TrEMBL record:
<dbReference type="GO" id="GO:0005524">
    <property type="term" value="F:ATP binding"/>
</dbReference>
<comment type="similarity">
    <text>Belongs to the ABC transporter superfamily.</text>
</comment>
<dbReference type="Pfam" id="PF00005">
    <property type="entry name" value="ABC_tran"/>
</dbReference>
<dbReference type="InterPro" id="IPR003593">
    <property type="entry name" value="AAA+_ATPase"/>
</dbReference>
<dbReference type="InterPro" id="IPR017871">
    <property type="entry name" value="ABC_transporter-like_CS"/>
</dbReference>
<feature type="domain" description="ABC transporter">
    <location>
        <begin position="7"/>
        <end position="237"/>
    </location>
</feature>
<keyword id="KW-0067">ATP-binding</keyword>
<dbReference type="InterPro" id="IPR012701">
    <property type="entry name" value="CP_lyase_PhnL"/>
</dbReference>
<keyword id="KW-0547">Nucleotide-binding</keyword>
<dbReference type="InterPro" id="IPR003439">
    <property type="entry name" value="ABC_transporter-like_ATP-bd"/>
</dbReference>
<protein>
    <submittedName>
        <fullName>Phosphonate C-P lyase system protein PhnL</fullName>
    </submittedName>
</protein>
<dbReference type="InterPro" id="IPR027417">
    <property type="entry name" value="P-loop_NTPase"/>
</dbReference>
<dbReference type="GO" id="GO:0016887">
    <property type="term" value="F:ATP hydrolysis activity"/>
</dbReference>
<keyword id="KW-0456">Lyase</keyword>
<dbReference type="GO" id="GO:0016829">
    <property type="term" value="F:lyase activity"/>
</dbReference>
<dbReference type="InterPro" id="IPR025662">
    <property type="entry name" value="Sigma_54_int_dom_ATP-bd_1"/>
</dbReference>
Amino acid sequence: MPQDAVLSVQDVDKTFTLHLQDSHQLPVLRGMTFDVPRGACVVLGGESGAGKSTVIKMVFGSYGADSGRILLSHQDAVMDLVTAQPRQVLAARRETVGYVSQFLRAVPRVPALDVVAEPLIERGVNRAAARERAGELLARLSIPERLWKLPPATFSGGEQQRVNIARGFIIERPLLLLDEPTASLDGRNRGVVIDLIRESLGHGTGMLAIFHDADVRDAVADLTVDVQSFTPVREEVLA
Ligand SMILES: Nc1ncnc2c1ncn2[C@@H]1O[C@H](COP(=O)(O)OP(=O)(O)OP(=O)(O)O)[C@@H](O)[C@H]1O
Ligand SMILES: [Mg+2]
């Protein structure tokens, strides 16, 4: 992979097998190829259903790829996520790849402050210092302090999304995946997210992102990859 890349996706194919529809095959990607340089934001473009989230989930190791290579620079070595063992994928997630999904996976009974602080605590930072940093991020994202002690399950969509963003940005990993992180935020909070993204990029984090809002995309994108240019040809889809 190129020296300056944190991620190199090379010739990846992905077909879903629809088990509820007689094992019908749905080819989504053919020959997907692109790199994410360190400190750069690569934005995935393309219509709804093109396969943008699928790419992000393959890089996070949630979906397998059928062929090709997904090379990740992980702890001074190169890991191929297409062939990695589950325990290697978990190590990559701990140290190298962060993910802000579109929706918060809220754990019952855990207060928002601890949901955000957890990645720092897992890194060995003491609880008080981790909570202090979590509070700073929640305040920056305009989550009122009275909510910090409550579990996010009952928060509004936009509040949950901001908790999710705070959790995703509390530690800086070499690669951050963002799947429509600003979809239900107001303009002011979108501005905060743009600032957080720029700060992380400035520290060398590479990003692979999907943005619903053109203003956010235009503010942070260094490169755009059109996922539809890797859509399989029609004859293959019908075959
Ligand atoms: N787990 C799955 N099983 C079967 N098909 C799937 C699965 N995940 C995605 N797909 C299909 O793959 C295609 C691409 O889906 P994906 O969610 O990646 O699109 P997207 O570009 O992120 O769309 P959107 O902009 O609407 O979020 C769609 O046709 C979808 O139905
Ligand atoms: Mg999607």
